[in-house]
Design goal:
Length: 54
């Protein structure tokens, strides 16, 4: 993916996923009930992503 010397760059998809993940963590910390719902949603999305890649 990337190294310390900048020879490779993160893809736009990876940057987007990191940004959305960070936003979800902030929301989960401020609103715990919503955080549980986000965790379930992320789990389902991850499972679908893994199943669709095969």
């Amino acid at each position: 993916m990337w190294d310390l010397f900048g020879e490779r760059h993160l893809s736009q998809r990876a940057v987007l996923l990191l940004a959305v993940g960070c936003g979800a963590v902030v929301v989960a910390l401020k609103y715990p009930d919503l955080g549980v719902a986000l965790l379930v949603g992320v789990g389902v999305m991850t499972l679908l992503h893994l199943l669709m890649d095969q």
